[in-house]
Amino acid sequence: MESLVVTHDPKEDDGIENCTTGYHAQEHATAEHSGPSHHLKDYGTFMGHFNPGVLFTVYGLLWTYNVIKRYQIARREAVLTRRDPNKLNFQCSLFSQYYDGCCSRVPVEAFALVVGTTMGLFGELKSGFRDGTFHIATMHHMCMFFFYDLVGVTNILMHKKYALPLRSDLALFIIASLIEAFLFSGHVAGRNNVNKQVHILLIYSILGTVVFSGLELLYPSSVLASLGRTLSLTIHGQWFWAVGFILYPPSSLLPKLDQEDHGSMALISTLFVTLIASVIISAFITNYVIVRQVIRLSLPTINRMQSKYYGQNLSAASASDPEKPLISDSDCE
């Protein structure tokens, strides 16, 4: 009787193993692509950091110029009227309250903020759709734009004499900044060292804005609190640009930092401190230029500008009680 011999080819096992491995890899990729983690993944982009940076930088610089100019005008008024320089006719406001020409009755800055934040919100909504699905992580930036949009809407309502408490726009600006800091705190977990550090520094700039805005709300006649807010906002906007260039360089010519190297982290800290120094120096330069302009103004021109800023009864109100807000709820009764 002949015996039946069954031979076993090891190559067949390799083939079966390769097919099994390939099947599981494909299954894992499909699950990763369609699972919840795929929708929650943060697909950061350069423009996603550049556009908010433009918004914050423009308003930071504009408000810095406005605060310094109003302060120097108040100082010039005190010199011309021989008033105590410690009792200046200066009160903070989030937005500029004085415009020339045809826009004198329109809150231009607030409308521009509403337009800019609305465009940013819908831009983030559009970029959130990838591969036929919506990535929930983009809602972080959408929420940020939404609350700053409310700040502009609030100022417009105040300009239209809607019954809102004094400095409601500044209070809502503080809330919007706190919400932004809370949202970006979620960008820290699970990131590499460089990514984590740039977002922590971004949160620091936001918290600086919150602290100085709170001081400005408590001490409305403090120019240092107002400047602290505007300079922190400028730093915040420009660091947004830095984050975009560091994490998502738009050109292959730009160097890409090692995401885990401690030398890269030291460089980033140095860049942040250098940015703070450059913003402060730019404020000194702006102050010098404005002083050279204001020193030529006559008293009638100063009075006209002050009345445009604060109203006709500014001097009398400030002289009677320098700590009293220039516009209070009782003034509207």
Topology, element by element:
Blueprint: H1 10-34, H2 36-40, H3 46-80, H4 108-127, E1 129-130, E2 133-134, H5 139-159, H6 168-185, H7 193-218, H8 223-247, H9 262-294, H10 299-310, H11 314-320
Antiparallel strand pairs: 1-2
Helix pairs in contact: 3-4, 3-8, 3-9, 3-10, 4-5, 5-6, 6-7, 7-8, 7-9, 8-9
Please give a structural write-up.
With 333 residues, this protein is mostly helical. Helix content is 68%, strand content 1%. The chain has eleven helices and two strands; from the N terminus they run H-H-H-H-E-E-H-H-H-H-H-H-H. It has a two-stranded antiparallel ribbon with strand order 1-2. Helix 3 crosses helix 10, helix 4 packs antiparallel against helix 5 and helix 7 packs parallel to helix 9. It starts with 9 loop residues before the first helix and ends in a 13-residue tail after the last helix.
What are the defining features of this structure?
333 residues; mainly alpha
**Assembly classification:** single chain
Residue-averaged pLDDT, rounded? 79
Poorly predicted parts = 1-8, 16-40, 312-333
Q: What composes the largest sheet? A: 2 strands, antiparallel
**What structural class should be given to the helix and strand makeup?**
mainly alpha
Distance between the termini: 119 Å
- Helical fraction: 55-70%
Strand arrangement across the biggest beta sheet: 1-2
Shape: globular
State the helix count. 11
The run of helices and strands is HHHHEEHHHHHHH
